[in-house]
Amino acid sequence: MSYTVVSGDTLSKIAQKFGTTYQELAKYNGISDPNKISVGQIIKIPNRSSSSSSSSSNTYTVVSGDSLSKIAQKFGTTYQEIAKLNGISDPNKISVGQVLIIPRSSSTTSSVSNTTSSSNVSTSTIQVKNSNKISEALKKSQWSSKADSLSVAFQVIIDNGYSVECAIGLMANLLAEGNYGIVEYSFSKSHKFNFYLPSGGVKCKTIKDIEYVRDWPTTSKETSGNLKKDSCGFGSVQWSFERRVNFAKLCLTIMKSDSDVNDNNWAIAEAKFITQELKNGYYSAVEKAAKNAGGSVEDWAEAFCDKYERPAGADLKMTGTGSACVTRRKNAKNIYEYLINNNAFD
Q1: Separation of first and last alpha carbons in the chain
Q2: What pTM value is reported for the model?
Q3: How does pLDDT run across 74-89, given as a tens digit for each residue?
Q4: What's the structural domain count of the chain?
Q5: Are 48 and 148 members of one domain?
């Protein structure tokens, strides 16, 4: 059987039409670049009986309300695997009536983790075989300066039984943070109240600085100008007396000397602190928002933004319109694609 390429065709669309894969068509026709086909070109279509895909896949037609993540869950595979098999560059863009090739080989089903060690732990759709590869890949990436902190963020999420998608969502948020160690006030970010740390300024540079913020008076009485106990906090963690104190205590277990007080260690501390807060109750809201949106790494990144961090620029509605949400979604997509392309999950 053969097919003549018409305007608007792609190898992926042709594959969907005939119930095969673009990879199979490219191989069958000796096409080295699947993105380069031309109008009028004759594409040979392999017989289903002779196609290797017939024994390793089936098809599914997209209906209203579907997302690639929901379809993947239905067939016990991953949205990434379906996207790759069907040549879908943006997993968030599928249309009603679209025919998808669904993998059903043993290699696919083995990649699905069924971790259920806790009632609030989600099932990961990506299996991590060697977490050291994540760290090694990140050290060679554009984010090499934050490789250690991002690796810790990834590892603490996985160690606590949460999904890889959740881990990448947290990493995306950490990349968006730029004010580690800054002391801020809930009613003013302009630092007008003559608040200075022992080392001077409003950014913690020494162990004494962290201890100073930790030990900020615990009474509700105004202590210095207009500053109250609940108004003082670290820029990388939302304001509140309890959070600020607990975060400072955690920082002091990581930063033992003044030379340890740096952005990388702030990020490591934040990753551990946020993971603990997820365990203490925030996870359910973040997970629900991410899964309802489709469950992609981008969805998890925005769920952290809207349902946990809530920075300026978050739309708080999981619509991806807020500037902070857009940034975090982009970060998540870039991190995920980079790790996939560098075989970090193998």
Answers
A1: 37
A2: 0.60
A3: 777 777 778 777 778 7
A4: 3
A5: no
